[in-house]
Amino acid sequence: MSAILQETSKRADWVLGIDIGGSGSRAALEPVSGGAGGAGGAGAAVGTRHLFEAEPVSISPNGSSALPVIASLIERVRAERPDAALAGVGIGATGLASLVVSPAASLASLSASAGAPVALAIDAVTAHLGALGGSAGAVVAVGTGSIAIGTDFRDVWRRVGGWGHLYDDRGSGAWIGIEGLKAAIQTHDGVTTDAPALLSAAVSRFGPAPTWPSQLYTRDDRGAVLAGFAADVAGLASVGDDVATRIMATAGALVAGTLAAALDPALPARAAGVGGVFASGAAFTAAFAEAFARIAPDATLVEPAGGPLDGAVELARLVAADEVVAAHPPFIWR
């Protein structure tokens, strides 16, 4: 153990959870001995969670910006709360396994910056920890992207989805945004006449349709921009627009299929869904529940105890207590 970690371990009394996403990044600083709180899952008592926000991940020819965003959040927390000595840091990040060349190579520098041991995980792992509190089962996380994992954190690690919005992320915010724009551009071109409301919403957000390619194809944060339009699609679905409702219902059914595929026979048939898209309205959630019951009739769908940020805090507590599961790339790095 380095000198800085030895010194910190004598007085460390906080943990830091970090959730790095395509639409935004957050960190939560909590007392290491905190009980249930936060969003209903692992966390400190009400009033003791300190939140920090940062930019979303961007994707360029050099890969993901996840590691620089993580490093900047750690530096910010240390600068703004120099009194909060850290006992452990837990990090969940989108694209960590697919778009970061060597997550393990960053651990030493992140640990030195935090003055504490660090665990890195893909976002599905921290979503699972937040939703099921460390119990075995399957969890799907749906935000800008969509990814599911079935695991017992020991022997079974079953990943489904999370391969990006170009050809995957079924039912995610980016997927919904793409489907909304597809319907809008077809009505703009006169191929269909059924999506005038979506066309109007797209023009309000992005400007005239001929400008959309230059706005979207050239952006490093294209997934987040597409996911932003998902809010307009969901809003139109909530007031009964037929095309928007169909898109949201299809998204819910696709997410159910992703979650069901993560139910490994070696795991308890217990599942949950987390992420911002689950707050998008009844068209999505009803279709999700109906499709999951049809695809996986023997599985139990439970309410999540917390979200991905809660799971990152729980991972930090496990690190601080030296109880975290062993490193298991490409899911967890220690």
TrEMBL record:
Signal peptide: none annotated. Pfam families: BcrAD_BadFG. Residues 16-280 form the ATPase BadF/BadG/BcrA/BcrD type domain. This is BadF/BadG/BcrA/BcrD ATPase family protein. It comes from Agromyces humatus.
